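agent: user wants the structure for Hexosyltransferase from Salix purpurea. delegating to structure tool.
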Amino acid sequence: MLMELWKPVLKDFIDIISISIFSNPIISSKFDPQACGWAFGMNVFDLIAWRKENVTAQYHYWQEQNADQTLWKLGTLPPALLAFYGLTEPLDRRWHVLGLGYDMNIDDRLIDSAAVIHFNGNMKPWLKLAIGRYKPLWERYVNQSHPYYQDCVLN
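agent: tool returned. relaying tokens verbatim.
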């Protein structure tokens, strides 16, 4: 087993992922469509277990299986869910606070005590539709005079 990794996240999101990935017979024959997923944007890995379980090969295998995008069209989360299937463990929610890109009601104390905050969702802090109260959490770390930032269209 890999070290304590991910807290199962967002039931509706996982249901959508499960329907879109696990409804394919190639995948559903090997994986439980009710299995929990996690927020793949932040991870903690046990590299010894990674090598032992040959996770890289599994990830590449699933990417190759989807070269024609007939298994899924959602990017990097589906092959990660498949490659890490059965190898994840939950972290305490205070360790990784999710939802700053869609949930307007996250307790400030939870955010303040978090090791990692995650702007998952559509309302990213660099977009005009960002949730205003969370935007300063991101802005304080951004060098707005940096050429890369200046070249980006962030609205």
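agent: one observation worth passing along. The chain has two domains: 11-83, 93-151.
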